[in-house]
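Q: Convert this sequence to C-alpha coordinates.
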Amino acid sequence: MREAKVLFKDQEAGILTQHDDGSFTFCYHDVWLADKDKPNISLTLPKIEQPFHSKFLFPFFYNMLPEGSNKQVVCKLNRIDEEDYFGLLMTTAEIDSIGAVRILKIETE
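A:
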Protein backbone atom coordinates (compact mmCIF):
# COMPACT_ATOMS: atom_id res chain seq x y z
CA MET A 1 0.00 0.00 0.00
CA ARG A 2 1.21 3.48 -0.87
CA GLU A 3 -0.29 6.77 0.27
CA ALA A 4 -0.01 10.40 -0.69
CA LYS A 5 -1.35 13.65 0.70
CA VAL A 6 -3.55 15.65 -1.66
CA LEU A 7 -2.95 19.37 -1.16
CA PHE A 8 -5.16 22.15 -2.46
CA LYS A 9 -3.38 25.52 -2.40
CA ASP A 10 -0.86 24.00 0.05
CA GLN A 11 -3.57 22.86 2.48
CA GLU A 12 -4.09 19.15 3.01
CA ALA A 13 -7.49 18.16 1.63
CA GLY A 14 -7.30 14.38 1.79
CA ILE A 15 -5.41 11.15 1.22
CA LEU A 16 -4.96 9.18 -1.99
CA THR A 17 -4.15 5.50 -1.43
CA GLN A 18 -3.01 2.78 -3.79
CA HIS A 19 -3.83 -0.60 -2.30
CA ASP A 20 -1.79 -3.77 -2.75
CA ASP A 21 -4.27 -5.07 -5.34
CA GLY A 22 -3.65 -1.94 -7.48
CA SER A 23 -6.98 -0.27 -6.67
CA PHE A 24 -7.26 3.30 -5.41
CA THR A 25 -9.12 5.18 -2.69
CA PHE A 26 -9.45 8.92 -2.18
CA CYS A 27 -10.86 10.28 1.06
CA TYR A 28 -11.30 13.88 2.18
CA HIS A 29 -10.19 14.85 5.69
CA ASP A 30 -13.00 15.58 8.15
CA VAL A 31 -11.68 19.11 8.70
CA TRP A 32 -11.85 19.79 4.95
CA LEU A 33 -15.39 18.45 4.75
CA ALA A 34 -16.55 20.51 7.72
CA ASP A 35 -15.34 23.82 6.24
CA LYS A 36 -17.99 25.07 3.80
CA ASP A 37 -15.45 27.45 2.24
CA LYS A 38 -13.18 24.58 1.13
CA PRO A 39 -13.94 23.44 -2.43
CA ASN A 40 -14.01 20.02 -4.06
CA ILE A 41 -10.61 19.21 -5.48
CA SER A 42 -12.42 18.15 -8.66
CA LEU A 43 -15.95 18.08 -10.05
CA THR A 44 -15.61 14.31 -10.24
CA LEU A 45 -14.57 14.10 -6.56
CA PRO A 46 -17.24 16.09 -4.70
CA LYS A 47 -16.96 16.71 -0.97
CA ILE A 48 -18.65 13.72 0.65
CA GLU A 49 -17.80 11.68 3.75
CA GLN A 50 -17.61 8.34 1.95
CA PRO A 51 -14.29 7.40 0.37
CA PHE A 52 -14.09 7.15 -3.40
CA HIS A 53 -12.94 3.77 -4.76
CA SER A 54 -11.62 2.87 -8.19
CA LYS A 55 -9.85 -0.06 -9.85
CA PHE A 56 -7.78 2.52 -11.76
CA LEU A 57 -6.14 5.84 -10.91
CA PHE A 58 -8.93 8.43 -10.81
CA PRO A 59 -9.12 10.42 -14.08
CA PHE A 60 -8.52 13.70 -12.24
CA PHE A 61 -5.15 12.45 -10.95
CA TYR A 62 -4.30 10.58 -14.16
CA ASN A 63 -4.64 13.83 -16.11
CA MET A 64 -1.94 15.38 -13.93
CA LEU A 65 0.66 12.96 -15.37
CA PRO A 66 3.22 13.89 -18.02
CA GLU A 67 2.79 12.34 -21.46
CA GLY A 68 4.91 11.28 -24.41
CA SER A 69 8.61 12.09 -24.35
CA ASN A 70 8.24 14.06 -21.10
CA LYS A 71 6.89 10.94 -19.41
CA GLN A 72 9.72 8.83 -20.83
CA VAL A 73 12.38 11.23 -19.57
CA VAL A 74 10.85 11.52 -16.08
CA CYS A 75 10.51 7.75 -15.79
CA LYS A 76 14.08 7.14 -16.95
CA LEU A 77 15.64 9.78 -14.69
CA ASN A 78 13.66 8.66 -11.64
CA ARG A 79 13.76 4.93 -12.42
CA ILE A 80 9.98 4.62 -12.49
CA ASP A 81 8.17 2.01 -14.57
CA GLU A 82 6.08 3.80 -17.22
CA GLU A 83 3.02 1.82 -16.05
CA ASP A 84 3.49 2.95 -12.41
CA TYR A 85 1.07 5.85 -12.59
CA PHE A 86 0.94 6.36 -8.84
CA GLY A 87 4.74 6.48 -8.57
CA LEU A 88 4.87 8.90 -11.46
CA LEU A 89 2.15 11.05 -9.88
CA MET A 90 3.98 11.23 -6.55
CA THR A 91 7.21 12.18 -8.33
CA THR A 92 5.90 14.84 -10.70
CA ALA A 93 2.89 16.37 -8.92
CA GLU A 94 4.83 17.23 -5.78
CA ILE A 95 6.37 20.34 -7.29
CA ASP A 96 5.43 20.45 -10.96
CA SER A 97 1.67 20.61 -11.33
CA ILE A 98 -0.74 22.84 -13.16
CA GLY A 99 -3.41 24.33 -10.94
CA ALA A 100 -3.94 24.29 -7.21
CA VAL A 101 -3.53 20.57 -6.49
CA ARG A 102 -0.24 18.93 -5.50
CA ILE A 103 0.52 15.38 -4.39
CA LEU A 104 3.01 14.60 -1.59
CA LYS A 105 4.20 11.07 -0.95
CA ILE A 106 3.67 9.81 2.61
CA GLU A 107 6.82 8.03 3.71
CA THR A 108 6.29 4.76 5.55
CA GLU A 109 8.74 3.23 7.96
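The CA atoms of residues 45 and 52 lie 8 Å apart.
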